[in-house]
Amino acid sequence: MPRPVRLGLAALSAVLGAVLLAWPFITDFYSYNASYYNGVVAAAAISGILTISLNLAMGYGGMMSMLHTGLQLVGGYAAASLTVKAGLPWPVGIALAVPVGAGLAAAVLLVSLRATSLYFGMITLAANLIVIEAGRAWEDVTGGVNGVVGVAPGSLSKVAFYYVVLVFLGLAYLVQRNLMRSGVGRASLAVMESPDTASAMGVRPATTRLLVFTVAGGIAGVSGALYALQLGFINPDVGLLDNGLTFFVGLFVGGIGTLVGPVLGVGVVALLVELIKDYGRYTTLILGVALLMTMIVLPRGIVGTFRASRFGRVDDGEVSGEAEPEASLPDGILPEPPETDHPALEGRGLVKHFGGVKAVDGVDVAVRAGTVHGIIGPNGSGKSTTVSCLTRFHALDAGEVLVFGEPSPAKAWQVPALGVTRVFQVPHLFEQQTVLDNVLTGMRRREGYGWLAAVLRLPSYRRRERAGREAAARLLAFAGLSGRAHRLAGSLSHGQKRLLEVVRAVASGPRVLILDEPATGLTPAEIDALGRLCRTFRDRGLAVVLIEHNVEFVMGLCDEITVIDGGKVIAAGPPETVRRDPKVLEAYLGRPDLIEEVA
Ligand SMILES: Nc1ncnc2c1ncn2[C@@H]1O[C@H](COP(=O)(O)OP(=O)(O)OP(=O)(O)O)[C@@H](O)[C@H]1O
């Protein structure tokens, strides 16, 4: 399924690129002060590189970074010390700025792995202050408060240096685009929207954040090196947070979480600063007001607003919500279950208490491959907690979990590797991603390419990504959602969201699929469609676990049923046995509607 092109944005990027390329010729032709105007745009392009880095961290990674001026500073120090102090050529200085920036970013992220967004912001602020103070104190390397002077790009002319800056701006843009339009980008957006759901797809939130923030650090380092080379010096003041205002304003004006927004936004800010240069002392005030106005009037920024408009929207053709009965489940999606007599998923003596609440109190449950296994019980009986124990979203107080006879790993993100995937009780779609990208995120574990292959667009990446897209498109057709592939998932109806969640979980190639109350809020037709999917999965050898309140649906679909009440199993067996069990009828006392259904 080809990716639809946003013609408006493509044209905007092309115009922006053409103006930047032609800029020295334009200034040469129209101005007596060409060198000055080339310098202004080169400085804006360097800011654009840093803003791309900030966009990766904040817009695509959800990490509030106050470290970016510090990252620029260390990149500048790397270039300055290699060129001025060690006498090496300037390209070596830029090259070293990459690992220095990346290393600092990685180190800060590693010490803040467990921090939530607000605390992460505070930790990065503290790290930025430390970097500035270190710059002041470590005189031998940084030159102290005076910094390092005499940094220069060899014998390059100003115009040649301008094009060097453009090349690095283009590279930073490509790294951002290629990374974010790959499985890494989808995983990063998934972690940003819901770390738990990402974990259920086998995406490790910590590793994903580390990768994105480290790449952002490397790009910020390059911007620092270019900054030092352009100005001819670097000193600790470069790291001051005030200097970050341009990047923040540029990012929000252009559009956070968009590819071209950071560059466009910084361009707009540079133009504004240039227009008000005679009132220099009001620059901070005016930029602050510009940021405020953007947040109020254009909260998505220029590109975000354009993208959401009629002109920027993608036309994805005919919309069809109907299931396509002739489309069968594509081959190669579901793995063969291993040859073993062990249950696909087994919980033995599971115990989970919350303070005084015995949510799960010694539950035994065994689910066989090629069956649909229902878990039912009154409200608050412990069904969802049992599932969270089985999938390791809750640490067990006692008991063990086995997958095809093997002990399950302890972390939620490790469990999908054994083929166990869950769908949550409350819809947990990645609403800011398209329907197709949601399914592709489900395939993250089996993408089969690394981040570098994605950045460099290696043949292995292209091959695997194309195969993944085709499989995802076939899965969507199977569920009757193909007409909505390029819509944002948030725009689907409740029933379609439920179906998409199931499809996304199946995309990960599970052997055990756990559905927590999937029929809630569905129309009868959608419940039928869900039943069709579950039967197909079962016939393909999958173990389907169904937690449901809709007893009629469960009785008609399940091969085995476990009934839980008060955190304990009160009955287990085939539906016809369970529905007549006196303990089951008693558990539903007070719910006459359910007694009728069960009996
Ligand atoms: N994170 C938690 N902290 C404290 N108590 C919890 C937590 N999660 C669940 N509980 C409690 O544990 C008990 C079992 O809850 P659980 O959600 O597993 O029941 P359930 O059978 O899935 O209910 P429902 O059918 O309403 O979804 C309830 O009393 C609930 O309030």
From TrEMBL:
Major localization class: membrane
Record's bilayer topology term: Multi-pass membrane protein
PROSITE patterns: ABC_TRANSPORTER_1, ABC_TRANSPORTER_2
Localization per Swiss-Prot or TrEMBL: Cell membrane
Residues annotated as signal peptide: none
Region (Disordered): 316-342
Keywords, comma-separated and alphabetical: ATP-binding, Cell membrane, Membrane, Nucleotide-binding, Transmembrane, Transmembrane helix, Transport
Protein's organism: Actinocorallia herbida
Keyword Transmembrane annotated: yes
Protein name: Amino acid/amide ABC transporter membrane protein 2 (HAAT family) /amino acid/amide ABC transporter ATP-binding protein 1 (HAAT family)
Keyword Ligase: no
Single GO MF descriptor: ATP hydrolysis activity
